[in-house]
Amino acid sequence: MTTTIEPLEDQLTADFYAYEALLPDEERKILLKARALMRDEIKPLVNDNWAKGEFPRELITLFRESGLAGLSYEGYGEHRPAVSNLLSGVLAMEMTRTDASVATFFGVHNGLAMYSVHSGGDQEQRDRWLPAMAAMDKIGAFAMTEPLGGSDVAGGMRTTARREGDTWVLNGAKKWIGNATFADYVVVWARDVDDNHVKGFVVEKGTPGFEPAKIEGKTAFRIVENAEITLTDVRVPEANRLQNINSFRDVAEILRATRAGVAWQALGVMAGAYELALDYARERQQFGRPIGGFQLVQDLLVKSLGNITASWGMLVQLARLQDAGIFRDEHSALAKAFVTSRMREVVAWSREIFGGNGILLDHDIARFFADAEAIYSFEGTREMNTLIVGKAITGQSAFV
Fold first, then answer.
1. What is the pLDDT of residue 78?
2. pLDDT tens digits, residue range 274-299?
3. Residue 300 three-state SS
4. How far apart are CA 188 and CA 113, in angstroms?
5. What is the CATH number of domain 248-394?
6. Which fold would CATH assign to domain 140-240?
7. DSSP string across 351-369
8. In CATH terms, is domain 19-134 a member of 1.10.540.10?
């Protein structure tokens, strides 16, 4: 079977092999709408708010008006049939290509929080929460990581849930929770003291005992409002317990999909950094000519483009595996480990092309360089994802 790929006039500079052309026309229109939103409405807000470490609340209005939330969930959002996993991934890439913080705000809401409800909730819960979340009238957050538990949170979760009749009482702490300072619904994960299994609870804004505090002093993702949350006798009705989550194995189903989304974000960071460096190399004059005409600069650009193109190919096939229903933990783990490692190389090479100007926020590249470190670390470190893949291919667990 032969697939015809038509050239695209508005194709990304970083999409050297025209992967974007694999999207059907209807889905590509959605992508182009997102591209225009990020370029025309959101990019002008980014650097000032990144410098201040503040989340501009007008972003919520801009995304609400765009209708981009909820596209992955059939029956919710403006696009009633669910869009392909390829489009979902490319949208994550597109947003991150402009700014990783903004993309993470959207990904936490549209991915982690909404997917937790969609996958972990029953039909009544989906119908109760998802329409408002798809419309972005209500914003979601996802609270799993703890002050003393990152990579080992599956077995070492300290936040507890104790049932009292039709109410659950939550106690503990969470850390690095994006959107939590202003979210309407926070999906909190806690260990049931009776059966020792992890369960999910939707804690609504204003619930007594739920105290989020914004984390200050970050050197990456400065627009994201990450919070440290203290839960003190937080009472949640049984109706707010996600009914299809009975153990951490069920939670892993959610993380499998969201980890793939982080790999797409890493591609977006690479694409954005490379395009900035390419534009700068064409314009910056040294020794009487653009620096893009020097061999060493071209070497950095071509190595960057190679990393980007290889990552595109891996992620496109990953999306196909998702659409085919044969997507496994090790597939997303390999993508996250590989693409984020390539991302680190590309942002370093891109910043290098800028020389001293590369540390100035005005040139944007410094923001990409800093934000890449956050993407490299969350949703499973490279080491943890390596062990997931290693176990799958050898049949031997190397986890301690």
1. 59
2. 999 999 999 999 999 999 999 999 99
3. helix
4. 10
5. 1.20.140.10
6. Butyryl-CoA Dehydrogenase, subunit A; domain 2 (2.40.110)
7. HHHTGGGGG-GGGSHHHHH
8. yes
